Amino acid sequence: MSKLATIQKIHSIRPHPDPDVNRIELAKIKEWPVVVKKGEYKENDLVCYIEIDCIVPESNPYFEFMRSRKFRTWPAKFKKQPSSGLVCPLSILPNDKVAGLDLQEGYDVSDILGILKYERPIDIQIGGDAKGGFPTNLISISDEDNLLSYPEVLQELVGKRIYISSKADGSSVTFIYNNNEFKACSRRLELKDDSGFPYRLVSKYDTKNKLVELNRNIAIQGEAIGPKLNGNRLELKDIELRVFRSKDLDNKELFNLAKLKELCEHLSLPMVKIIDEFDFNPLIHTVEYFRNLADGQLYDNGKPGEGIVVTACEPFYSYILGKEFSFKVINSNYKQES
After folding, report:
1. 3-state SS, residue 248
2. What is the pTM of this model?
3. Using CA atoms, how far apart are residues 119 and 113, in angstroms rounded to an integer?
4. DSSP state of 305
């Protein structure tokens, strides 16, 4: 999982473009735009930066101003200017927990501050009953890092071919067939047989029988979208699947794009929508390029899409991300459900 709260440097501060707005300024941390109080920080200051989609502790009086937002950080706009995440002074760190620590840029202070990842709740009617925890010994939980937190990751793409897929707005699901045993999982749990929305997909796409017939040790991950799943932004009448990843559990390797397409076609499983595929060019495919691409995404019903996911056609391990390479970019026009 990505670091939720870290020590970061304010790379720039500029005034609000409206001269009549004099109480806030526009700061930049990595590639994240953040609105701050005027005069509170200056360029190159080290601060605690809390990413979007985090829960700050209600028990800490400093975060009382977040109560109206249910103590959750999310993309917002202040006087028409976008702001992603929360900037806090280093003084918020408890002295007894940081004494003797070398709090350099990038230091993870998530545990010190008690910051948690926000998990969107699943409707109780379709959530299902847990059989156990997610089988991370077989495949990792899907958790894409945001390019704006790791802009340096683009350097790992030089000389590689990539593809861009639409980020479907639903809930992650994983199907596993391993040593003659079938598993269906939600984002963080393995579910009991015929329980919860993953098994609705099993029934709709005959997933279990197809994997038994395929007779390979394999994991398939996708996004479940439709009614009662994160607001159903696509306004679907029934639950649907969008496959985005598969792994050979014998050789422990992810499928490349060609093999993933072949697998989905063979099993008659719908893939995520692929927007484009091309050879990466660092002079063209910059952070701004991917941000603009994400901001232009629309679902078929005309609503702003959640964003994009960028993946290498031939999977490889990213030493910057500390896992298999892929990243997301969220559409700044996209409004999350609370």
Report:
1. strand
2. 0.88
3. 18
4. P
From the list 104, 4, 106, the residue with the least C-alpha distance to 50 is 4
What is the token pair recorded at 329? 């970019």
Q: Which pair of tokens denotes residue 332?
A: 């700044």
Separation of alpha carbons 116 and 119, rounded Å: 9
Residues 258-266: contacts with CB under 8 Å, at least 24 apart: 258/313, 263/220, 266/214
Residue-wise pLDDT tens for the chain (338 aa)? 568 999 999 999 999 999 999 999 999 999 999 999 999 999 999 999 999 999 999 999 999 999 999 999 988 889 989 899 999 999 999 988 888 888 899 999 999 999 999 887 776 556 788 899 999 999 999 889 999 999 999 999 999 999 999 998 889 999 999 999 999 999 889 999 998 999 999 999 999 999 999 999 999 999 999 998 888 888 999 999 999 999 999 999 999 999 999 999 999 999 999 999 999 999 999 999 999 999 999 998 889 999 999 999 999 999 999 999 999 999 988 875 54
